[in-house]
Amino acid sequence: MAFIATHGGDVGKREISRHFGLDGSDRIILKDVLRELAEEGVIGRKRRKLHVPGALPAIVMAEIVERDEDGELIAQPVDWDEEEQGEAPRILVRLARRGRVAGPAPTIGDRVLLKTEEIPEADGRIRHNGHVLKLIDKARALTLGIFRRDAQGGGRLVPVDKRNMGRELAIPPDFAGDAEEGDLVAVEVVRHHAYGLPIARVKERLGSVATEKAISLIAIYAHSIPSVFRRETLAEAEAARPATLNGRFETREDWRDLPLVTIDPPDAKDHDDAVHAVPDLDPDNEGGFILTVAIADVAAYVRPGSALDREALVRGNSVYFPDRVVPMLPERISNDLCSLRPLEDRPALAVRMVVGANGRKKRHSFHRIMMRSAAKLAYAQAQAAIDGRPDDTTAPILDEVLRPLWAAYAAVKTARDARSPLELDLPERKILLKPDGTVDKVIVPERLDAHKLIEEFMILANVAAAETLEEKRTPLVYRVHDQPSLEKMSGLREFLQTLDIKLAKSETVRPAQFNEILARVVGTELAPLVNQVILRSQAQAEYAQENYGHFGLHLRRYAHFTSPIRRYADLIVHRGLVRALDFGRDGLPESTTPEQLAEIAARISASERRAMAAERETIDRLIAHHMAQQIGATFHGRIAGVTKAGLFVALDDTGADGFIPAATLGQDYYLYDEARHALIGERSGEMHRLGDRVEVKLVEAAPVAGALRFELLSEGARVAGGRRGSGAPGRGGYRRPDQRSATSKRPGKRR
């Protein structure tokens, strides 16, 4: 296992045999050993190569975080979830020899692409070397915060980073610039004192955050999300001309008579996917359907190496906030030329799929087309038509377009159910804003068949794209999701045992095993708890040049193809299809190497994590602003997280997350029981466990940091004989009842 982990997924049976000097008979035993390890979840497979789940990849995007006592740079992976993968590994940064890498040398705060290798016989916390392949982003040696003016003309900076709460900076009048009260500003620290606050100078005024409508500004700048397009990028977008049937680089099929329709959220501004279905008249496929998924042909406008392409790679994806969108591409491309507007000619890449009556795909083909959407529909609007409430838009297309779509979905759903992907019940909340940008309410949108239809058709199209590119031996970026690590599975088994639920240890892990457990608790008080714990046992989906399948969807090969307007990974897949199927001269360059795609995969995976963190923090701040006027009010909720430091609680009505420090739970000594996901009183045996219903009082709100602190009003369950469980005494627990500092939830996870 150590040897496999060292090679970061670039090792197979041949390399293992050579390294350990195995002969023919030994290799038979090796095959059995590797099979057993794979069944236990200790190792996984990426194509024919082996890897240890949760191990550091061979190529990783990392951020330089500090220098050690010898002055050497230390980095940590950017795309790393400590909750699911454990503590982030520390990497000793090795600079290339002079002349090998152009540009400035990296320093603390920079993002770099590293080629990693395990340090032989490492005995400390640093177990990996990282050789710099490329400097991605230079550090912004600035601190973000809210400027609070004082009577002398200067002021103080209130940092927006939760980790720096309470660490204000002093800004003298001469260093305040034109900053006004309530502005979001970026400052540099110019002097430190042994006593008193550090002195800082305002370097950039980023805008006022006096209203909640500007809260997303904090996340945009805190995470260095590019929000203003470069001049050359905008010029290139404005110069783009609409694609034609017989263009300069490609020839298209004319599909404008096919009544494709778009089905999106009601507030969507760009429409990049359209669908169509019709019964298959082939007598050999009785009860089957022909499905068509057409996706906006972004590759026709964003060509490799162009200004649009370079900036799209830097952004990686669009970022969605409650009050704004930071797009990957300029509006001229995303909302105009590539938006599949009704009754307007638009270029697209389409996949036509033949499915049987059982919903399984029999065959498929890709086409570069010119299409004309027959209608733009919202999810609820399409669903209402099927449910017998058509309107002026849906009535004319109900029988010929919508009903066949729903009939095809019924067949596809049969195949999905047979495949048994992971079925977690985790409702997603959506914040609705008032016209002034303040929070109106938080809702859980109804999950309609219209949503599921589009989701399943997109999954089928994504699988078809991956299969075609593999068949044509064209390199691509996969969307992958590893199976849970051995450590996570072991912890999950221990937890389920406390609920008298067994999870087999020797069998190969499959999503169906989790679904069986989830089905046992549906409709019970245990359901939210079990859903959360199973979610936390899962790995994080990511992009990779090597394929090791998608565990959650239970698919052997999967690539993102259906959203090239907002995801760079999809654009790479589009270009690969153009090249593989000889659709034109604007496909993936022949010079593209697997190493280049591995670099792109690392960068866009990091961009995705960055976007998720920014979106989550913005919601935290909006909710904290919304609740700041409700100090002292009581709420009902559920324990959403347990650590040795305290409890994280999610409220029922708003979904707001806040923290209850362990020190405030009472005079008892509360210890963390890892197996139960609980804090348990050492003397009283009072237990507060993940998923428990609780009543809390809001005692503190820090809107700038998006932090809430609660006081627990309800009592926990009692464990006979005091604390017991697998967690060792001393792993956590607090006596001090005077601890009073706001904090906020840990980052959540997303499938």
TrEMBL record:
Identify the Pfam families for this entry. CSD2, RNB, S1
InterPro entries from the UniProt entry? CSD2, NA-bd_OB-fold, RNase_II/R, RNase_II/R_CS, RNase_II/RNase_R, RNase_R, RNR_Ribonuclease, S1_domain
Please tell me which top-level EC class this enzyme sits in.
hydrolase
Q: Which UniProt keywords apply?
A: Cytoplasm, Exonuclease, Hydrolase, Nuclease, RNA-binding
**Domain named S1 motif: which ranges?**
632-713
Q: Which CDD domains match?
A: S1_RNase_R
- Main function: 3'-5' exoribonuclease that releases 5'-nucleoside monophosphates and is involved in maturation of structured RNAs.
Outline the segment boundaries, as ranges, of region: Disordered: 720-751
Put simply, this protein is called: Ribonuclease R
- Give the catalysed reaction(s), semicolon-separated: Exonucleolytic cleavage in the 3'- to 5'-direction to yield nucleoside 5'-phosphates
- Family, per the entry? Belongs to the RNR ribonuclease family. RNase R subfamily.
Instruction: Tell me what organism the protein belongs to.
Output: Ancylobacter amanitiformis
Q: Where in the cell is it found?
A: Cytoplasm
State one molecular function term (GO): hydrolase activity
Gene3D superfamilies, per this entry?
A: Nucleic acid-binding proteins
Comp. bias (Gly residues):
722-732
Q: Which HAMAP family match?
A: RNase_R
Which E.C. number(s) belong to this protein? 3.1.13.1
* Record's signal peptide: none
Going by the entry's taxonomy, the superkingdom of the source organism is recorded as: Bacteria
